[in-house]
Design brief:
This protein is an alpha+beta fold. It has one domain (10-181): tt1808, chain A (Alpha-Beta Complex). The chain contains 5 helices and 10 strands. The strands form 3 sheets. A 6-stranded mixed beta sheet has the order 3-4-5-6-7-8. Strands 1-2 form a two-stranded antiparallel ribbon. A two-stranded antiparallel ribbon has the order 9-10. A hairpin with a 2-residue loop joins strand 1 and strand 2.
Amino acid sequence: MATTEKLLTAEEFERLPDDGNLYELIDGRLRRIAQLTMWQGEVEVNLAMRLHTHVQNRALGCVSIGKVAFIVQLNPDRVRAADIAFIRQERVPSLEVRQHIMEVIPDLVVEILSQHDTVAEIHEKIEDWLNAGVQMLWVVDPFRRTVTIYQPGYDPRLLGEHGALDGDPVVPGFRCAVAEIFA
């Protein structure tokens, strides 16, 4: 007699005890994700500080860091962890809601690549975020010192260290030299 694997829901995923590892939920199954290295963390904070300062000074919304969990698909459930996420002010849910896995999809997501990411995993993440409704996705490669910008309906744009990261129209007025992210 064959047994059927029980798939987790996002709600069950949120209630799992902390075992010290980081996970995403992919089609109801746990997938362990890598911890950030010090270098990746430096890149994350360099970009997040600039983004947060810009957003806060203009009351544009909220910025979060640190593998924040968002439900990107239901039945079977998928929960992705964003390295950096931005939600426009008019879409920011209450504090009570923000203390749980997020159902509101961010307007901007930043993924910082690790040495362990495969091309297939990166592609799957990009599709998940864009299919869920993310308006802009920045994939930061700290090893090649590049940022690739994805937006629905547009071809991806690759920026090197001499390029400038532009948040318009999702994060109005945000601009940052790519080199500053890796400083």
